[in-house]
Structure formats: structure tokens, C-alpha cells
Amino acid sequence: MNRRDFIKKLGLAGTSAAAYAACSAYMREALAQSTHTIDDLLTATAECKTQGSLEDIEHVVFLMQENRSFDHYFGTLRGVRGFGDPRPLTMRDGQPIWYQLQSGATSTPPAATAQRIRPYRMPNSAANKPIDDTSPEGTVGGVFVTDPAHDYMSGIGAWNNGLSDKWISKKGIVSMAHYTEADIPLYFKLAKAFTLCDAYFCSINGPTDCNRSYFYAGTSNGKNSNSPFSGVADSVGTAGRANWKTYPERLEDIGVNWKFYQDGLTWTGDPFAGNYGDNTLEYFAQYRANFSATSADPAYYASINKKNQRVNSVLRTDPNKPSQFEQDIIDDKLPAVSWIAAPEAFCEHPKWSPHLGEYYVHEILRAFTANKEVWKKTVFIITYDENGGFFDHVLPPVPPLSSSIGSTSPAITVTSGTTTRDVNSEATASSSSQPLGMGIRVPTLVISPWSAGGRVCSEVFDHTSAIQFVDSWLSAKGKQPKNTNFPGISSWRQAISGDLTSALDFNRVVPLVDTASVVDTARLGVAFNATQKTNANNAGALSPSLGNFNADPDKDKLTPSKQDKTRCEILPLGYDFFVGAYIRAASGGSERVEYPITNRGKLAASFYVIPYDRTGAFPGDGPWFFAIEGARGAPVTIAADAGAYAAFGAANATTKNYSYAVHGPNGYLFEFKGSAASATERQLADIMDAVSADDGKTIRFTLNWPGANGSLKVINAYTGDFKTVSAGTAAASITVDIPTADGWYDVAFVDAVNTSSRYLRRYAGHLENGKISRSDPAIGKLYNAISRIYEDIPVIIAAVAPVAGGAAAATPPAAVAASSPAAPTPASGGATLLNL
């Protein structure tokens, strides 16, 4: 089948089984050639010098696709924080975040028979049958699928003030479906050849245009829906339009060339042309068609409109003539900064399939092979505007909009005004209590000679990071002063979101390339007639059901077993912080739990504090949110009196029981619990600090004993080794060294004598030493909350019995039942396994 025949069949996909099969077969054939394209790019990469800097970059190209979450695409990939995450959020009902309650389960705590849905592989047909990757119906990646809810209200509803336990009721069963390497082969190939970011979040927990406004302008100005960004892009009206400054205007101001490539103007109704309305710049007043005629500076606005392409410019419309994008690469006329928006059919927005997006991306990559000298100087970044309603398990950073829900360190300003907004306003324009974001994690690939190696970057990013990257790059090249910040980005995002430079390695080892490259230089010839376009628009979309969920071939396996346990290289980060936990006197003679946060690292950090000793309403009973700036010299601290404290829950006023979890960047987890009324626990040590020693091979804890009594058992979850440390003959401070696993640590301190004690201090995360390291070896393992060590998942797991109507069982198998950090409950055999 040639490309023209492929396109003809593509127009029928979803309406004819034969057409679908032929389309999918050709798509697989076309994507199979991607190995040659990637090898060709790596071959050119190998010819680059091994030492470089931002100054060696001449071109930055951004492609923003539509509506996919990180776990939805890459939850099974090796080395990332995916389905094998050994430290996921435990929901307040005691289950790990994977086990979401089905709609209608409203009791608190939920009934034992309550239906739960966990991540399952996307089906490839409506029939409730196992997936067959060799099926003539085609692979899962080519299936048209229904579009989950992805508006702002359903987004914050699923997030549920940080408890993240309403995904099914707000987004539906389809939200938990995911793909594998067999389904999206090109994207996995790219992730294994270049750099994948596994902590990149969309900017707002809502839809397309407000997220794209952050991408192009650094802010949505409080807008949390698409309605302010609508209309016909080439109309003449400017009244009521968004009018805050966009980043292309900044580039105009400093004389940096840019262009927006798109295959036609706006959302045309033809899914294989136009830009699906994804060039949000077109909705800003300063980009309207008549603005150059009415502006005080017509030449300026004529310039920004000209660079906002209105012709087919990415895919070939004539198979014998290069597209504008390709021709600019061939002629070495690619602008310094380029943005690309795909047509509807290729943008990956459901119903449209991932394979169509992969095909579009492959055509862009092929264009780069036309001039390897341009490629050697280019960074190509692929990201997604929003999660599109699809599930992801990592908690997004959220600003504390008021002192009742957390605090920030002094250099970070968060305002929540609705009537009087400023650049630091992080609430919606309609409610001072609703945070704009960040939203859910989305896939982000950084493809460049300086990102080769198949590594993972886990620094926190959001869509403003794209602007920050260009700012850092242009400053390095002397185009603007150092440390220039685009004024539209809030103080909180400037701090918490990185600038993407950590995704590049300018001191790299040249990657080895095994094969000579033979690049298919043919291009897609688009030749659709009206009937084909109509059929494509009318093609049905699969809506996964409980039957599909039950047909998942991995339905009897624990969620962490879904992820490839192969380890890979991870890029160095600038995180270095410590969270304490102490019982201290409060005013009026009462006591409280204090958890001061100290940051020694150059990167700012965001934290969730989740109390499990209470179940009341938000915000009084949490979760709470904190943001601490990066250190520039002396460490920075959010002290207890600055908001890092909590009174004992009303139900624990007498026992003074407490149980908390603190989640931070790059898989950081600190659990602390105990009983402040216990005399024996009051004799146990406070942990005052944890620092890197021996270049990250060891983590060193400093313990402060209140008296001469008490002993702690210190357990290394990675090795199973433990030691006992005691107060000695007098109150004193001591240090305890624990070896790490390539910088990864998970250390539990428990009462060594009183086995019924509630006392726990558990620290888990990664020590940085400025060098490339290895991914977490605990990925794909279970944490045993009794022995406090990581254990391999059993090869055979008892099948989960269906409930009435063929639905999956309500809870995980009893032998591996999850439990809350607040009250671990031993399962059969005496073991309690957390974090399924």
C-alpha cells in the first residue's frame, strides 16, 4: 500500500473493518521505518562535539499535542515514575491511588464490596475479549477512543483537594485506560533514544486553550475554560479578546526570529487540515486580522501576523514538493523559535488515535534528516496541552492560596484575588479558593543531539517552562540580560517550574549507533475527497466498559507489575531538602505537630502534607500545600510558626495520635506517625537532619535524644539490613549512616523495644551529586509496611473474583491488601503490603 492509498483508507477508519485493518497495517509498516529515522538522527548526533553549552543551540521547535496523561502513555516504560512507583499516594480509604472507587460508592469508609477500577490496557475493540496485538483489526494504538471529560470542574473534582480519589466518578472508566510499548512504538523508541520528562505537568487542571495560553504567554489570567479563546481566527473583531503580552511579542521586541507552522488556519471542519484551533495566539486581540490596520504600529502587527502562518506548512500537500517547514530546514532558514500545531486528525485528541500523532511526529523528524547541520543545532520538544481526563498518579504541585491551606517561603508570592488580579494570582478569576493548577502530568519528550541517551529527567516543569527555556537560552546567547524572566509568569511558577535545561546534557558521552541509516525520504501526499473526510468525521469511537476492564490480560496482576523493571540513566537535579517532625509546645499549654521544611538545594520544591489521623473537610483537615524557594547561599526554611504545623485531630485529642505523609518532587516521601501521649515514644529521638555523604553513596541522619533512654531500629528498605541505635548514658546527638542504592534511600526508624509503638519516621528519596545516576531500583516492587523493606511481586497472584454483572472485584486480592499509613492492617500470612 502506498501513502495515497493509506490516506484513502484512513478516511474510513472506524467505519469499515477491512478499511481499519488495512489502515492499521500500513501505519505499523510506516512506523516501523522510524528506527531508520531515529538512527539517522543519532548518527548526526554522534558527529557533534562532546562538550557544549546552550550557546551551541540555534533552533528551538515546539510541538504541543492534545489530551494525554503521562501514565496513560508511559506508565509501563522503564525507569520513569509510572505504574511501578514504589511510593504512590495512599488514599484516605487505605487503598493506593491505583484503586479508584467506581461511581456510586459514596459511603465513608467505602463498603468492602465497593467496585474499584485500576489502570487497565486500552482495548482494541468493543467486544469484551483479550487484546491480541496480531489481530487483523489492528493494534490498540490505532483505535479511535471516546473523549473523557476534561473541563476544569471535573479536573479539580477528580483531584479532590489533593486526595485524588474521584477519577471514576468525575472522568469515567475510560480515564484509567493506558497504552503499552506495543501500542505506541514510536514514542517508546524516542523515549529510549532521547530524554523523557516524567515530572512535567500541564499548567491548569482544565482544558486546551487556558493551558496553551500558559504555553504561549505564561498565564491564562485566571481563565479556566476555553470560552475566552474562541471565534473565527481571521475575523476582524478585537473587543473582549485576550490581550496580555505573549511570548512571540517578546521575541519581536528583542529581534529574535520566530514562526508558527500549521497546516491551515484554525478549526476548519476538515480533520486533516487546519490547526484544530490549537494556535491560541490567534484568539488574542493583537493577532486579529485587522489589527495591523488599526494599530498605532501597523508594521509591528503586520510582522507578528505574517509569522503566524496561514498556509499548509508542515505536511506535504504535493508529494513532490517539500512543505514550508521542510524547505526551511533544507535552506537553513529555520527560525530561532518555532511552534507547530497539528491538524485535528493528527493532534491525538480523542477520538483520534495515537498512531496518527506518531505519524505526524515522524514526518517532522524526517524533515530534520533533510539537513543534518540544522539538526545538530536544534532542540525539538514534544508536549501535550492537558491530560485530557486521563488518569495519572503523581500529585501536581499546587500553590497555597491562603494561610489556611499552607504557606510559602518569603521569596515566593502567591495571590488569590479575583476582582483585583496581578501576575502572581494563582486562583481562578471566579473563585479565590480554586487553584488554577498545576494540572496533571503530561508526556514531554526532549529530542536533540544534546538529549540523546534514553535518559529520564525528573525536575518539575509545566508549560511556562517552555518560555523559561527560551529565556535561559537567549540569555546565554547574549540576546537579553542574564536572569531575565518573562513578566507574565507568576512568582510561584518561576520558582517551582524549572527551565528544561536540566533535560540536556552538555557533557555527554557520544551514543553508539549500530546501523547505517537508510532514510525513507518519501512524504505523505494528502488527497482526500469530501466523502472520505465525512467518513473520518463520522467514524465511531470506542467507549471502554467494565467488560473491557475485565478483559485486560493483566487483570490478575498488581499494578506495579505492569511497568518494565529495567533501569536506565537519570539526569542530575538540584533538589536537596529536609522535612522534620517534632512534638512541640503550643500557646496555651497545648501541644502540636511541627514539620519545618529546610531547603539547601538550588531548586525550589513543592510539597503535599496529607494527614491520615482525621477525615474532616478541606481545608481544616488537609491536605496542605507548601512551596519553598531554592537556596542561593544559606538554606531557606519554612518554620513551624510560618504554617508548618498542625494541632491534633479532634478524634485524637486524648491519645494525641498523629499520622502524616509528606510528598515532594522525584518520588520523595516522608511518613511520620506516633502517639504524643505515649511516655515511651517521648523518649525516642527526634531526627534533626539528613544529608548526603560520600558523594551520595550514603545518607547521614542526625538524631537528637531527649534523654538517656530509648532505642530505635533503623531499617534500609532497599537491602533489608537494619541496625539498632540507642540514647546511651545521656541525652546527646548522634549520626547514623545508611548506604544508598545509586543515591536512592528508604529508611525507617521504629521503636526497637516496644513493638506495639506507633512511632515511625520514614524517609525516602534520592540524593543528588551533580552526576548522572540510575533510576530507582524499587520500581515495580512492593513496600512491606511490617518488615519495612521492598519485596518482589509474587509471580502468581490469585485472581480477583468478579462481582455481580461481570464487574471486577471490589478490592485487591486479600494476600496483598493495601492499608493506610495511619493504621496498617496485617493481611493473611502476617504481611502487610502497602502501595500496590
Structure description:
The chain has about 850 residues and is α+β, with helices and mostly antiparallel strands. It has two domains: about 450 residues, Alkaline Phosphatase, subunit A, CATH 3.40.720; about 220 residues, no CATH class. The strands form ten sheets. Strands 10-21-20-24-25-32-31-28-29 form a nine-stranded mixed sheet. A hairpin with an 8-residue loop joins strand 31 and strand 32. The longest helix has 16 residues. The chain is globular, with a radius of gyration of 27 Å. About 55% of the residues are buried. GO terms for molecular function: phosphatidylcholine phospholipase C activity. Keywords: Hydrolase, Signal. This is Phospholipase C, phosphocholine-specific. It comes from Rhizobium tubonense.
User: Which runs of at least 5 residues are low in confidence (pLDDT < 50)?
Assistant: 1-27, 512-528, 796-836
Structural class assignment: alpha+beta
Termini separation comes to: 45 Å
How many H/I helices? 18
Q: What value does the Rg take, in angstroms?
A: 27 Å
Region (Disordered): 414-434
Keywords: Hydrolase, Signal
Protein name: Phospholipase C, phosphocholine-specific
GO molecular function, one term: phosphatidylcholine phospholipase C activity
